[in-house]
Amino acid sequence: MKRNLLTAQSGGPTAAINSSLAGVVFGGLSSADVDKVYGAVNGIEGVLKENIIDMGGFADKGMLELLKQTPSSYLGSCRRKLPEKAENEELYEKIFSVFEKYSIGYFLYIGGNDSMDTVKKLSEYAKEKGHETKIAGVPKTIDNDLAVTDHTPGYGSAAKFVANSVRQLYLDTLVYDMKSVVVTEIMGRNAGWLTAGASLANSGALHPVDIVCLPEAVFDFDAFAERLNSVMKEKNTTIITVSEGIKDSAGNYIAESKISRTGGDGFAHASLGGVGKTIEHFISEKLHIKTRSIEFSTLQRCFSQNASLCDIEESFAVGRAAVDFVTKGQSGIMPGFVRLSDEPYKIEIKPFDVAEIANLEKRIPKEMLSEDGMNVTEAFEKYARPLILGEPRIEYQNGVIELLKR
Amino acid sequence: MKRNLLTAQSGGPTAAINSSLAGVVFGGLSSADVDKVYGAVNGIEGVLKENIIDMGGFADKGMLELLKQTPSSYLGSCRRKLPEKAENEELYEKIFSVFEKYSIGYFLYIGGNDSMDTVKKLSEYAKEKGHETKIAGVPKTIDNDLAVTDHTPGYGSAAKFVANSVRQLYLDTLVYDMKSVVVTEIMGRNAGWLTAGASLANSGALHPVDIVCLPEAVFDFDAFAERLNSVMKEKNTTIITVSEGIKDSAGNYIAESKISRTGGDGFAHASLGGVGKTIEHFISEKLHIKTRSIEFSTLQRCFSQNASLCDIEESFAVGRAAVDFVTKGQSGIMPGFVRLSDEPYKIEIKPFDVAEIANLEKRIPKEMLSEDGMNVTEAFEKYARPLILGEPRIEYQNGVIELLKR
Fold this sequence. Notes:
Two copies of one chain form a homodimer.
Chain A: E1 3-9, H1 17-29, E2 34-40, H2 43-48, E3 52-54, H3 61-69, H4 89-101, E4 104-111, H5 113-129, E5 134-139, H6 155-173, E6 180-186, H7 193-197, E7 209-213, H8 221-234, E8 237-243, E9 258-260, E10 268-270, H9 275-286, E11 290-295, H10 299-302, H11 309-327, E12 333-341, E13 346-353, H12 378-384, E14 396-397, E15 400-401
Parallel strand pairs in A: 1-2, 1-4, 4-5, 6-8, 6-11, 7-8
Antiparallel strand pairs in A: 2-3, 9-10, 12-13, 14-15
């Protein structure tokens, strides 16, 4: 018997999450086991409020392509974490009553580790109560910090934007005949994958990045100063990439360090601008090098014009695969990537138990970090370079990117 | 008799200044009146230091195309302003002795209003002393503030990056079901063209920008608050675009306003992060709306992957035209654009006397501003939209933009 499919998006947006949505919708609309494809607006909130829309319009190929190039979450998002069943069983009952009302045979939740926690809880509840709805997660996060899967959809595009920005910022520093440093603050509180991804700017004749500051290593101002001074002996300018989440040996965020500034009110206080500004002040005040800091902010997760084709296509494929898995009866799983080879780059998509993913964080392993923790190794380059390859065709109208608004 | 051509770049880099360089070099290499084409490194400094390179390698079409897609200044830049002749005639003599040594019949200086001042002084000196070198400027500036010319090379690409970023940042704000504001701080100290350009994000079903804060209008916190509150009654989120140079009615920079903050050291002080942070604090502290500020920083002048084809092609054409004009005997001129029609967009390139351009600034005229000064009119849209149209083909290698390094 044909059942309906419901999908939703959760967590922070990426340039590729709508490509996964497109994959889910395409998979659903072309599956013999699926009748209607629905989308819940603002994640699990939309399920609870029955804010549910019919996605049948995406049978149109033009619409589907436009969805793939649209960054951010088409269906909206939420940050709501489900309570334990014991704390609020009514909530679970409400969700499954909505599933029943809409004849939802398949629920696919696109998101990061928090969302996988929701998938885990709902699929366990379904099993326990004998509900037939099959529930799966579809991975996404620019942070690349999901366990088990080789990498996450959304990471390649964010890393590509960051690497290309850093590359062009570096060229900009070469213009004047003087020493200068640019500090780029990059997202990733506990895992430094995206910050490390900026080092992919190093290619061909250009080597912008010499120092990366990652949450995987303790940040020490003295060691950093020594390393930077040694870099500046060799070249006029460099781009330092800094993860927002770096900490000192006592476990305190560097963003909250008290770096005294000259001028102004004269008080030593934490920088208002985050870790980038803190490091900028340190370099200019203590090392006396002209420095500018740049925070990529939400631009790094939403700038589709520099997306990775590999990422966009894999995001689509993983969404489609999730439909395959649930319609074949699997539940409580998340399709992820297994790397078969680096050169040529080959992956396969397999279902993983969400219990192995939910609430866990994958950080950069030791072999991808230099001994002093301030750079990445060849192993990282081999791992990450394939993920940023290829450029999707982008449609424009009136000089601006065509975007799909719900 | 064939003479050599010397070119150089000055002022801040743009995504299109190397396209103008390509136009000059192509024009020179294909002109019957030009023997060799040279480039001086770091602007007029390179002339004084005889840091001069042969540009003959750009006869290769692949190299020339790569130069066109490379942002920043291939030949490097400087910010040196020439003193008046009376103050340091030796400097002038030195420059012309270098011209003589290298048989420079034509000197083309690519830059903004300061560079046009150099062109003016050198061409007047040449005339006065009977030097035969013909001297012309080639316009560039993301600020679009050069007098006489309809617009400037470099502006279209910067405006396109800003508009496309704002458009995608807006989509990002729509993701959560809550009110929020993003403040984008945009370059332009005295002229608001680039900040106004962000409003080109408004197109089709998306209308991200409702308020633009320009140096052409006095910024008043109360009027701003009233306008923003009225916008937020109509919609959940909006992007406010703010020029770094906005001032209050007393002529003080808003970036230096004392906006008291809660928490922290409790002192009221100027924001460290510039005008974006100041406005962000004002909105979140006084109007109690969730706000984030983003400074595009140098990214807005160097991100080639979102360049405007119109801009890249016109920048090339204006460089080439400058060669035509000087080889026909003109001196002390800058080729500029005359707008023939908006729809269809048509321009012609004409030589203008640099004396009409040097040291002047063109600001946004009244008819392009709304009455309250907080928005642009249809007239601005008509003027600016054609300048961001078209997308150049970008070459990648290893997932990053191919760039030419000197």
